[in-house]
Amino acid sequence: MYKNSLVSIEDLSNEEIEDILDLAQEMQQNLRAFPTLASGNIMASLFFEASTRTRGSFESAMNRLGGRTITTTGIGSSSLEKGETLADTVRVWSSYSDLIVLRHPWEGAARLAVDYASVPVINAGDGGHEHPTQTLCDLFTLRAEKRNLEGLKVALCGDLKHGRTVHSLIFGLLRFGAELYFVPGEGLDLPEHVKTKIEAQYKRPIEKIPAGDFQALYGGQTGGSQDGEPLDALYMTPSKPHLRTLFEDEPNFEFKTSPGREVVFYVTRRQTERETGSPSAQAPVGKYPRISKATMKKRFSRATVLHPLPRVDELSYDMDDDHRSKYFVQAAYGVPVRMALISLILELKPWKKAGERRAESQVEEPTIVATQGIECANPNCVTNRESQSCESRFLVFTEPQVRFTCNYCGWEIAPIFYGTQQRGRKIYKPIGKLRFKSQHQLFQFRFFCSEDEALGEGFVSVSSAVETAAPVFEVKD
């Protein structure tokens, strides 16, 4: 973990995740058995966005460990309201505490906090970016219910565009070999940068298929929606060849349940507070997957239903007493999971499976660059909200083409041209022609996301440069 902090679920190795879950299982047996473990430690609970379960379970966890909590809630109750930067706030609270738990509406706020804090930071949710401790709770719940995550079929339903719990959970599940189905609300599909990451970094091809039995979640019958238009789900295989080769003889492959087939539904509400362009309260609601006893009656008799809560109308109250519903158990598990995480981050308990690996290896940080022409396009990214505290920096990837991922919020920038100097002329070329041996060579180039950008800065295309080059004459006798 970077500076012993947790910003993204990807900050944790598989062994570290297993250590957290194993310790949480031990603590869950008797939550009152550790009353002095964190004695003398203070946790700063900085929640600048509304929270019930996350804040409550973190503070309960620290209290059960014998530590103390100091807190502030809402931007309006802090000096941020007066114009203080988040960087300064974090600096100050670091001197008051041994651990900071931060929730903030800006994406990348937790990464910025780590840069300025003198104590470990735990991300309790940063905008629509990530919520890694919720993923730890989700994985703990799934392991308790299913015992094994490998090959588990998980349908992620609802707002996949803005749902930070979903974004973290996807990467957590991929690490342990689960098989995922994406069942989004209309217009609320996964962001493109998340899809690219799934395919390029995790090597898990995404294939669009007919909704099949998932059609029932939209209120329609299998094979067609209420208005007769087909609905699609996105299927991703965990460790098999691409579906086009797997099912080349079955181009219309769709999800079908069968007797004894277990499916986990991870349901999320529509995140109206993160939508822009229209008043959230009046935003029109399109097709949206909903869980009720009626939709689950026949097809999903052995399903398990999870929800990070709070819910609105995507999860019927008639599911509360259903044996398949585990969302209140899931919420309760937040206390032992966060007790375990606090204990390990504060080094009150030893890492076990991860201990030897952490001691023997120095994990090399990925190459992070600030390069010409690349800026994060996410308006809610902390680099655009508080630019004086953080320089725009990007992780560099070369497959399937050169692309940059914001080091703070994860948004992707995929330039289509690059510019360079050739014999005193400013030339731009398609990004596909870029070749370099080292990522450090990127500083030699200027990148453009459109041809107009290149032309506006005085670059000309390589073909134009050839056409206007000075002629060469041959003198004949």
Short key terms for the protein model shown above:
single chain, 477 residues, alpha/beta, Rossmann fold, 3 domains, 6-stranded mixed β-sheet, 4-stranded parallel β-sheet, 18 strands, globular
Describe the 3D structure:
The chain is of the alpha/beta class. The protein has 3 domains: 2-130 and 335-360, Rossmann fold, CATH 3.40.50.1370; 133-331, Aspartate/ornithine carbamoyltransferase (Rossmann fold); 368-467, no CATH class. It is 27% helix and 17% strand. The chain contains 15 helices and 18 strands. The chain has helices spanning 14-28, 53-64, 86-94, 109-116, 132-146, 164-175, 192-200, 243-246, 293-296, 327-332, 334-345, 355-360, 382-385, 451-456, 462-467, and strands at residues 42-47, 68-73, 99-104, 121-126, 153-158, 179-184, 206-210, 232-236, 264-267, 304-306, 368-369, 394-397, 403-406, 412-413, 417-422, 425-430, 446-448, 460-461. It has a 6-stranded mixed β-sheet. Strands 2-1-3-4 form a 4-stranded parallel β-sheet, with helices on both faces. Strand 13 (403-406) and strand 14 (412-413) form a beta hairpin. The radius of gyration is 25 Å and the shape is globular. The N and C termini lie far apart (75 Å). Mean pLDDT is 83; it is low at 222-228, 241-252, 277-282, 359-364 and 465-469.
What's this model, at a glance?
It contains 15 helices and 18 strands.
Q: Which strand-content bin applies to the residues?
A: 15-25%
Give the mean pLDDT. Answer: 83
Structural class: alpha/beta
What is the helical fraction, as a range of percent? 25-40%
Low-confidence region ranges: 222-228, 241-252, 277-282, 359-364, 465-469
- Give the overall shape: globular
Instruction: Provide the CATH top-level class of the largest domain.
Output: Alpha Beta
Number of strands: 18
CATH superfamily of the largest domain: Aspartate/ornithine carbamoyltransferase
**CATH architecture of the largest domain, please?**
3-Layer(aba) Sandwich
Query: What characterizes the major β-sheet?
Result: 6 strands, mixed
